[in-house]
Structures are given as structure tokens and as C-alpha cells.
RNA sequence: GGGCGAUUAGCUCAGUUGGUAGAGCAGUUCGUUUACACCGAAAAGGUCAGGGGUUCAAGUCCCUUAUCGCCCACCA
């Protein structure tokens, strides 16, 4: 055969990848509406990347695994849909833009709400464009015609509809409860957005009437008028619950009430503590139990209120030393010790969280409601359930299967069991406005604004996970009853990083089971974290961040994908090194040269199966058949890390090193043996390219264009070698 | 405090349901026998963290110890 010129040079990915992607995209292959009818569907939503910047190597890993799943099913003849999109990531994006603006000397306070939002939107749009380009660069075969954004009009409608439904069912309520206040971001955050950091500090013991109490936070103690101890503590048995005692405290004499509570740890400190219900979640609960007064000590900027008298208006850090000094002078300081504990900080701003009691919106996770139309096995329509029960049920019954299960099952359950009502309101501007309107004392909840004058919408926005929770079904058209929703929901698979199991996976299960009575996905596949060569987390401060685009430029997308996939089992972290990528770049070149050899040695691409194959060739074909089935089994069981490794080993070290070498003589000799060998080699190689296509889509498609017969379709939609 | 994971060749890691250890990189020797030097051939390298148990058979299952890592909770 005549050899196309391109095979005379080593493989050059820069000449092929972009144009192949363009071809796939323009061909319509990525939209399942254009694919042949089938009763089997495979659907998956792209975990929408945050529009806070660019994609990192972790995204590249996710995209690679997802694309393998998608291409595999597409070739197997499933109606295959992969919905792309991006996430507005309210708090993360707003924080980021705020920082960018301040670098330019623009302060947020100087902007109106609308101006600020428009800056954020501009940034979000630019990020979106970058991300969309990177998704293409990775070869991800998503259906761009269905692209979604968590803050676009359709998703916005879904969010308001979900909110209204929950509100009408009594699952969303407004209440004065203790929340996590971020004094820097000036917003509440959820429990999951807290990061604990170790802090070395002093632990003080103060005389409090007849007791000695311990605290690390003297500045909150002004209003403490309840002193708590365990009912079984023999040291304090002379005191009774409710007893009043007079004592001298920071700003003079006061009266305190004794409370007995079983939640006190008798071993810790002196076994006696005073409580500050306004600024501690534990104290708040205790106060609720006993019906105690609560008083605010610290304001939303972290400054002391008038109750602190001479200290009023001071920042916590400033006041602490002065308060201790005063207590020491009054002879109330007993002793101080060094103390190490964990303090709660806000994930985004790094500020120390100040618990506060504030009026916020919550989703009640423990409140029973009547289930709507249910398609969930074991949950009947109209049955009384709680959101927590729904979230637990679908995993317990394995309606949603987690891979790897054992590693995340307990984590998931324990999170659910400890889950408190979900605080969904945020005091930030970028996001979905809460669909509540006020007029005087009236309150209106609706999908659309109420008619009539004088209504003002709540200025808070929703926790970003409220909208991403609807992602699987809002992207398919809900609340409209669309064909997509009917065909592709529940989705087949959710592939994501294990770090967002609570944030996102659990919230999607909550939203989907509640809103539409369906599980959001049948399977969850967790990938691990991509670390640097030495196993360290990639971070800006270490300067070890790898940009996928740099790797792609140097080694090609196929090589990058293989290096991320081979040997990386679900849930495992992966150390990324150039060496591995380089190895798969060489593999790409190996494939290139195999193509060249075969093309040089066969008579025609439409070669027919000879009447008789040599026994040797037949046995190679039989072995290959068994190998293909093995690979297919791995694919079915999500063992991409094994399938890819086996393909690499087979193609290089069996097909090229042994089979091709063994056939050189027969090919040179001509005649029947040569015909047999030609057929065998071309057959195995074509099928090998097909098996490898999900992993290395570009080079396999590029080679395919030169080795396919006239009747073959493009490889992306070619039939998988092993039938379902 | 609770949970999970890791410990296999110099380095980075595979090893799917138990059947006498594999890859990449590095290193050794040889090869310009024309698909490929982004290559080929050959050899070298591991008491599979320690201990105990189950089994005809264990890197693989069970118990235990040690070291490292991650997640969750958190005490005033």
C-alpha cells in the first residue's frame, strides 16, 4: 500500500488533536439526538467547574475518566449523553473577584450591588471561556448543545421551584439559630465550609463565685450568668439546679444561676463552666434545653458590644489581654496554662469563625413530610419521611452504588447522622436571590415575584450547593417535563473527587429524591487527589502546580490522559510525574510506527478474511479475542486503571514485540501465509485501536482514518469489539 | 476521640474473585539484521513493614504491632 506521508515522521500531536476535536464536534457525534435509536442509555453530567479561574490537573483527571466512560458506552451503542456546564460558585467567585478588584484599588464598598455583580459576571464569563477551551483540549466528548450554567435562566427557575416546593412543605424555614459567621466575608457559611486549624493559646482559670472556671476566650465571658456542672459530680453536690448565687465578675457584682447538665465533661478543667449561648454552638444547645437567656456579646465585625462596658467597641484580639489584666487586678485570675486546640476558620477567607445567633434560612433535615410521587424503591408515594432518611435510604439499598464503597460508606452515614439543619442563606450578592418577598409584615414565597407595589425581595442569596444540588435534573430541563428528563434521568454515573462527597454528592441525592422522587445517579465513582511527584498537595505557595495545558503542549492529550489513568484505582491519590507522561508519549509514537509497518505490508484496507488462516495466525486471533473480553470486563467494572495498563502491555509487548516480529518472514515471503498474516495483523490492530480509543482518543482516531475500510465509520462512533 | 487508607525492585506505583511477584523511570551488557533509537535483545534487582493465624496454597483473607497520610468530631 501507499504510505501516507505523515507516517514518515514521528507522531506529532500538535498536528492532529485540535482538528480532530473540531471534526467530532461539528459532526454531531457528541449529541445523542443524532445517534441510532437504542433502548440503552448512558448519561452523565459534568461536575461543573467553578468559574473562579482555570482548570487544574485534578479536573484533567476527572475529565479523562468521564470521557473514558462516555466513549466506551457510545461505542457500545448506548444513547450516550454527557452534559457540560459550569458553576457560578457564589462565595468562591465573589471572594476571588473582590481580591482582584482590591489589587486594582477598587473597593467593594464603593460599588453598588449591581456594579459589583457586573464585575463578577464579567470575570465569570472570561473564566467560562477558558474552561470551555480546556475541556475541549482534554478531548472530552461532551454535548455542547446542552451546555448549562448553575446561574442561567433555566437553572434559576429550577432553583426557585425547588425552594418554593420545600417552603410549601414546611421544610424551609427562617429562624434565629446559631450559625457560623465569617467576620471577614460578612456572611454565614455552612458547617462543611469550615476548616479547623490548630492554634496554640493560653487557657485561663478564673474565680467565678465559689467555682473556678476555665476558658480560652475570656472576651466572651461578660454576660455569662449560668454556671454549669455535671449532675453526678460529687465535688459540687451541695449545689442544686436552679440555685442562685451572688458573685463578683468582670464588671462588678452579679447573680448567677446553677445549671446541671449531663453534657459536661467532669474530667476537663475543673468540671465547671459558664456558658455563652450567643457565641458557641454547644452552649446554644444547652441554653435551648434549659430555656436560658441568650445575649450577644460580639457584633458582626468582631467587636465587643456595650455589655462589655469599658471594653465596648474593641476588637477581640485587642480586648483579650486587657480583660485578663483587669481580672488579675481584681484577684479573679487563678492561673493560666498553655493550650493547643483547633479553631474554626472560613475555608474561603481564612477568618476565624464567630458563632452568632442570627435570623437565617434553613432546610429542615429531620422534619417529616409527605413524599411526593416516588420512583424510589422502598419509598412509597405519600409516605412520611425526612430528608435525612431519603439520603440514607438510597445508599443503604444500593440504589446509588458508590465506588469504592467500603471507603466512603461509613463516612457518608456518619455525616448524615450528625447533620444539622442546613443553613442556606448567604449575605453575599453573587448567586440565586432567595425567592422571598416582603411588604410590611407580609411575606411571599413564589417562583415569580408577586404582583403589586411595595414588595421587596430578600437580599440574601442561596448557598451555592443549593443550586448545584439540582444539577442532574435541572440540566435536563426540570421543572419542565422534558424528553431529556424522561430519557436520561436518573443519570447513570457521577464521577467526581471524593472531597465533595458531602458538599455535592449528598446534596444532589437530597435534592433529586425530594424534588422529583428519583435518585440522581445510579453510580458514584470517586477519583483521588493529584499530588506532585513527591506526593505533596499542589499549591500556589509550594509553586508545584501543574497546568494541564503545558503538559498537553509538550506531550499531547493522549499521553496526559494515559498517565493519569494507568494504575490509578478509584479513590486513590496519584503522584503526577513527567516521566510517566513521557512514557505514554512514546507509546503514541509506537502506535504510529505500528501503523506504518502494517500499511507498508498489506495489500489493501478492505482485505478479506482468507479461506484458511494459518494455525498460528488463528491462535493469535483467538488470544486477542480472549484479551478483548478481559479488557471489556475491566471496563464494565470501572477498572480503567487495569484495562489501560493491559492495553499498553499487549499492544507494545505482545502485538509489536512478538506477533509483528514473528510475521516479518511470512510477510516478506508472499503467498497464502502472507495473506493470512496481513489479515490477522490488520484485524488485531484495528480492534486494538478501538479498545484503546476511550483512553487515547486522538491518536487512535488519527490512525483510524488511515487504516479503516471504506465502510467503517469514524472511530468515535465505531462499534466496540465486544458486544454488550 | 472516631473512621479510612498506605507500607511490594534504587525511585513512583500496579497486582481485579488467594495459585510460587509486574510496569514506568533510573542503572548494567549487547545490537546501525530497513515499522519505530520516542527502538530492540539479554541480564540484574524484592525474606511483598514486623509478628501470629486460616488454607494443600497468602502480597492477596483474619488478628495484632509499628510508621506515615487523609477525613470527621471537638471540651468550655
Structural write-up:
A hairpin with a 2-residue loop joins β20 and β21 (442-445). The protein is built from 20 helices and 27 strands. The strands form 10 sheets. A 4-stranded antiparallel sheet has the order 6-5-14-18. The chain has a 4-stranded mixed sheet with strand order 10-11-9-12, with no helix packed on it. Strands 8-7-13 form a 3-stranded antiparallel sheet, covered by helices on one side. The chain folds into 3 domains: 152-171 and 364-525, HUPs (Rossmann fold, 3-Layer(aba) Sandwich); 187-359, Alpha-Beta Complex (Isoleucyl-tRNA Synthetase, domain 2), CATH 3.90.740.10; 553-717, Orthogonal Bundle (Isoleucyl-tRNA Synthetase, Domain 1), CATH 1.10.730.10. The model has no long low-confidence stretch (mean pLDDT 93). It is an alpha/beta fold and 724 residues long. It binds one RNA strand of 76 nucleotides through β8, β12, α9, β27 and α16.
Amino acid at each position: 500500500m501507499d504510505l501516507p506521508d505523515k507516517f514518515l515522521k514521528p507522531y506529532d500531536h500538535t498536528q492532529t488533536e485540535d482538528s480532530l476535536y473540531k471534526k467530532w464536534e461539528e459532526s454531531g457525534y457528541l449529541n445523542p439526538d443524532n445517534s441510532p435509536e437504542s433502548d440503552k442509555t448512558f448519561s452523565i453530567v459534568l461536575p461543573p467547574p467553578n468559574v473562579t479561574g482555570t482548570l487544574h490537573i485534578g479536573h484533567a483527571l476527572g475529565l479523562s475518566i468521564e470521557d473514558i466512560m462516555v466513549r466506551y458506552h457510545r461505542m457500545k451503542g448506548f444513547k450516550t449523553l454527557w452534559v457540560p456546564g459550569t458553576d457560578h460558585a457564589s462565595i468562591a467567585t465573589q471572594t476571588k473577584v473582590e481580591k482582584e478588584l482590591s489589587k486594582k484599588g477598587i473597593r467593594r464598598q464603593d460599588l453598588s450591588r449591581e456594579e459589583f455583580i457586573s464585575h463578577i459576571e464579567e470575570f465569570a464569563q472570561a473564566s467560562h471561556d477558558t474552561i470551555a477551551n480546556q475541556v475541549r483540549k482534554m478531548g472530552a466528548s461532551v454535548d455542547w448543545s446542552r451546555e448549562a450554567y448553575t446561574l442561567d435562566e433555566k437553572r434559576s427557575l429550577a432553583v426557585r421551584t425547588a425552594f418554593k416546593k420545600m417552603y410549601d412543605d414546611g421544610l424551609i424555614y427562617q429562624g434565629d439559630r446559631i450559625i457560623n459567621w465569617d467576620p471577614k466575608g460578612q456572611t454565614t457559611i455552612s458547617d462543611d465550609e469550615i476548616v479547623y486549624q490548630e492554634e496554640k493559646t493560653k487557657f485561663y482559670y478564673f474565680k467565678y463565685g465559689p467555682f473556678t472556671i476555665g476558658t480560652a476566650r475570656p472576651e466572651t465571658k461578660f454576660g455569662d450568668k449560668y454556671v454549669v456542672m455535671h449532675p453526678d459530680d460529687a465535688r459540687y453536690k451541695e449545689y442544686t439546679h436552679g440555685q442562685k448565687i451572688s458573685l463578683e465578675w468582670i464588671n462588678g457584682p452579679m447573680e448567677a444561676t446553677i445549671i446541671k447538665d449531663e453534657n459536661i465533661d467532669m474530667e476537663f478543667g475543673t468540671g465547671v463552666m459558664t456558658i455563652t449561648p450567643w457565641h458557641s454552638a454547644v452552649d446554644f444547645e444547652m441554653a435551648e434545653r434549659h430555656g436560658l437567656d441568650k445575649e450577644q456579646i460580639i457584633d458582626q465585625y468582631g467587636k465587643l458590644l456595650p455589655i462589655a462596658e469599658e471594653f465596648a467597641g474593641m476588637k477581640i484580639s485587642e480586648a483579650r489581654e486587657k480583660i485578663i489584666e483587669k481580672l488579675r487586678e481584681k484577684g479573679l485570675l487563678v492561673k493560666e496554662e498553655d493550650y493547643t486546640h483547633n479553631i474554626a476558620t472560613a475555608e474561603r477567607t481564612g477568618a476565624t469563625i464567630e458563632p452568632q445567633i442570627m435570623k437565617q434560612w434553613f432546610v429542615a433535615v429531620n422534619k417529616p413530610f409527605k413524599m411526593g410521587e416516588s420512583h424510589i424503591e422502598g419509598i412509597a408515594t405519600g409516605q412520611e419521611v425526612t430528608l435525612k432518611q431519603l439520603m440514607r435510604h438510597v445508599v443503604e439499598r444500593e440504589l446509588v452504588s458508590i465506588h469504592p464503597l467500603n471507603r466512603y460508606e461509613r463516612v457518608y452515614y456518619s455525616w448524615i447522622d450528625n447533620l444539622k439543619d442546613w443553613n442556606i442563606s448567604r449575605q453575599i450578592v453573587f448567586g440565586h436571590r432567595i425567592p422571598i418577598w416582603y411588604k410590611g409584615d407580609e411575606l411571599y414565597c413564589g417562583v415569580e415575584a408577586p404582583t403589586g407595589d411595595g414588595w421587596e425581595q430578600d437580599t440574601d442569596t442561596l448557598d451555592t450547593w443549593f443550586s448545584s444540588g439540582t444539577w442532574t435534573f435541572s440540566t435536563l430541563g426540570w421543572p419542565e417535563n422534558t424528553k431529556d428528563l424522561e430519557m436520561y434521568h436518573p443519570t447513570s454515573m457521577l464521577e467526581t473527587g471524593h472531597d465533595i462527597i458531602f458538599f455535592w454528592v449528598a446534596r444532589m441525592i437530597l435534592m433529586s429524591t425530594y424534588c422529583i422522587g428519583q435518585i440522581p445517579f445510579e453510580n458514584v465513582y470517586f477519583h483521588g487527589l493529584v499530588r506532585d511527584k513527591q506526593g505533596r498537595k499542589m499549591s500556589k505557595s509550594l509553586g508545584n502546580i501543574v497546568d494541564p495545558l503545558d503538559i498537553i503542549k509538550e506531550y499531547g492529550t493522549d499521553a496526559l490522559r494515559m498517565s493519569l489513568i494507568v494504575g490509578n484505582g478509584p479513590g486513590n491519590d496519584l503522584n503526577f510525574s513527567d516521566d510517566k507522561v513521557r512514557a505514554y508519549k512514546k507509546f503514541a509514537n509506537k502506535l504510529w510506527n505500528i501503523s506504518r509497518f502494517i500499511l507498508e505490508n498489506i495489500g489493501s484496507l478492505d482485505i478479506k478474511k482468507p479461506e484458511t488462516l494459518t494455525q498460528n495466525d488463528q491462535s493469535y486471533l483467538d488470544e486477542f479475542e480472549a484479551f478483548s473480553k478481559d479488557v471489556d470486563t475491566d471496563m464494565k467494572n470501572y477498572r480503567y486503571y487495569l484495562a489501560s495498563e493491559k492495553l499498553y502491555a499487549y499492544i507494545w509487548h505482545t502485538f509489536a514485540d512478538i506477533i509483528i516480529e514473528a510475521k516479518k518472514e511470512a510477510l516478506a515471503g508472499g503467498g497464502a501465509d502472507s495473506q493470512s498474516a496481513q489479515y490477522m495483523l490488520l484485524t488485531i490492530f484495528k480492534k486494538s485501536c478501538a479498545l484503546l480509543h476511550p483512553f487515547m482518543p486522538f491518536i487512535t482516531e488519527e490512525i483510524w482514518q488511515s487504516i479503516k475500510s471504506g465502510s467503517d465509520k469514524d472511530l468515535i462512533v465505531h462499534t466496540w469489539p465486544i458486544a454488550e
